[in-house]
Write a structure and sequence with these properties.
The chain has 495 residues and is of the alpha/beta class. It contains 19 helices and 19 strands. The chain has an 8-stranded mixed sheet with strand order 1-18-14-17-16-15-7-8, sandwiched between helices. Strand 4 and strand 5 form a beta hairpin. The protein is globular, with a radius of gyration of 22 Å. The structure holds flavin-adenine dinucleotide (FAD). InterPro entries: Amino_oxidase (IPR002937), FAD/NAD-bd_sf (IPR036188).
Length: 495
């Protein structure tokens, strides 16, 4: 078994930054583009694609050597390919990919039917849709059908313009008072999916939960590498000028408070508009800088709370070694009830396992497991190098101990194991505190009102809970591109 416990990204980064210095990644860029997109997350790539198709000249700048942002993958010795955030998204991705990407991409989206829960309160498997959840909550949890039906209808009707005061806790209290088992079933997967808690506005829960419940949980067959490479081909076909290893240092704002240019790898490139896919807080606080905003707006932006970060453990089995069907997504917990503090704690009692079978990448002979836990940046950032390495090793070992319950001989079959932490996510995506799912709800208003502060400056990317996740990011990219289109050509906006 090969094991990586030292921060691989640091040594790799040293080599890659020397390489970056040697090569000019901005060779032959134009002096000016209609639009510059900062960041190639799903929102950034989707925006670049629709804006290029609408006829704009688009430059897409990504600091990492790979496109995708959180929607990414990495390869390890022995032929392992690990996906970071390909665990499941709602069916709405099919329509969004067909409309804003290609039919071919949409056609590779397939359902994951084995969603499992194993915890002290219940053990069950579901297809994670309204019909099956209704069956479970009525038959297994003995809640009257009318209550369950009313709950689903209420959640389905929720939208952005509704009351934002009611919390998710109050929503559950109304429908399922005293039923911590039902709350756990309804909430735990959503907390894993976007970091939301019982104190967040109920509309954020209702919108995201209903998106999943419409048809279940879906994945991209072929893996994130296949998806992002197809997206890259499409971007190039549509004329987007794509540059990796291109770190935007500054967004230049003119005296008239509109965007003029970006400064990237020490070079100034002019533009008519900018769409930042970087973290909303760093876009405002660092790339533009506080001096360019109204005082009240700056206070509002500073007050935006980040969502939590994550830890993951990537486990590769020896070629050809597998396991009995464990389901696709397994929400494992040893904790008594749904408890957000316990889910964020470094003393891990809850994990989500994603089981990847060879069909994930047809033709492959690999079984892989990725374990994800919600995590706090502050628990990982101030450790000495030795302690950090030790804590990662402990995380790997405790994850294997837990996994042994489902794959009894995992240690014999193991070929590769390594862990990532909030520091890893920060390093690769530059999200403040390694936030996995952007910001809490209030971040959405700040993101949306950015162009009112600075002409031609737009933001699209994980924000406000409802605009995060694969589907949220893609759709928000389109919504914001539409606004950007209206800004550049008010009379003939087309998107
Ligand atoms: C562990 C984990 C598991 C997840 N699981 C799921 C899941 O199962 N289903 C789901 O739907 N979602 C999941 N998500 C969330 C989902 O991956 C994200 O919400 C989504 O991919 C974010 O897309 P985005 O457009 O906001 O951009 P991001 O992915 O945040 O990308 C932003 C990009 O901007 C680049 N950038 C930042 N600053 C600069 C700069 N100054 N110059 C140049 N480039 C810059 C970054 O390098 C990055 O590529 C998961 C996330 C994590 C971390």
């Amino acid at each position: 078994m090969k094991r990586r416990i030292l921060p691989h990204h640091i040594s790799k980064h040293l080599v890659s930054s020397q390489f970056a210095m040697a090569k000019n990644f901005l060779k032959e860029t134009r002096d000016r583009y209609d639009v510059i997109v900062i960041g190639s997350g799903l929102a950034g790539m989707t925006s670049a694609n629709v804006l290029a198709k609408a006829g704009y000249s688009v430059l897409l700048l990504e600091h990492h050597y790979q496109l995708g942002g959180m929607a990414t993958w990495f390869k390890r010795k022995g032929g392992h390919i690990f996906d970071i955030s390909l665990h499941g998204f709602p069916h709405g991705m099919v329509k969004s990919c067909r409309k804003y990407w290609t039919p071919e991409i949409a056609e590779s989206i397939v359902q994951l039917k084995g969603i499992r829960f194993e915890n002290p309160q219940f053990s069950l498997q579901t297809t994670f849709d309204r019909k099956d959840f209704t069956r479970i909550i009525t038959e297994q949890f003995k809640v009257p059908y009318e209550t369950v039906d009313d709950f689903f209808a209420t959640a389905r009707k929720m939208n952005f313009f509704d009351d934002q005061e009611t919390t998710t806790r109050e929503l559950f209290e109304k429908f399922f008072p005293g039923r911590s088992d039902v709350v756990r079933l309804l909430m735990e997967p959503i907390t894993y999916a976007n970091g939301s808690t019982l104190e967040d506005p109920a509309i954020t829960y209702g919108i995201v939960f209903s998106n999943f419940m419409s048809k279940g949980v879906f994945t991209f067959q072929g893996g994130t590498d296949a998806l992002v490479n197809k997206m890259k081909a499409e971007l190039i076909k549509n004329g987007v000028d794509l540059r990796i290893r291109a770190l935007v240092e500054q967004i230049e704002v003119g005296p008239d408070r509109s965007v003029k240019a970006v400064h990237v790898n020490g070079k100034r490139i002019e533009c008519g508009a900018i769409l930042s896919n970087a973290n909303i807080k760093s876009t405002i606080q660092k790339l533009v800088g506080p001096d360019h905003f109204d005082k009240e707006f700056m206070e509002e932006a500073n007050a935006v709370r980040l969502n939590n970060s994550s830890c993951q453990v990537y486990i590769g089995l020896k070629p050809g070694e597998g396991f009995d069907n464990c389901g696709d997504l397994l929400f494992h917990s040893e904790h008594d009830g749904f408890d957000i503090e316990a889910m964020l704690s470094k003393e891990i009692s809850s994990r989500t396992f994603s089981f990847y079978y060879p069909e994930t990448r047809p033709g492959s002979d690999r079984w892989l497991v990725v374990s994800s836990t919600n995590a706090r940046f502050e628990d990982w950032v101030n450790l000495s190098d030795e302690q950090y390495a030790k804590d990662k090793e402990d995380l790997c070992q405790s994850t294997l101990d837990c996994l042994e319950k489902y794959v009894p001989d995992i240690r014999q079959k193991l070929d590769w194991i390594e862990a990532s932490t909030p520091k890893t996510f920060k390093h690769y995506t530059r999200h403040v505190e390694g936030a996995s799912f952007g910001t809490k709800f209030e971040g959405l208003k700040v993101s949306q009102s950015l162009p009112e502060q600075i002409g031609g400056l737009f933001h699209a990317g994980s924000v406000g809970i409802i605009m995060s996740g694969w589907l949220g990011a893609v759709n928000y990219g389109v919504i914001v591109s539409n606004e950007l289109d209206k800004y550049l050509t008010p009379s003939e906006a087309t998107i």
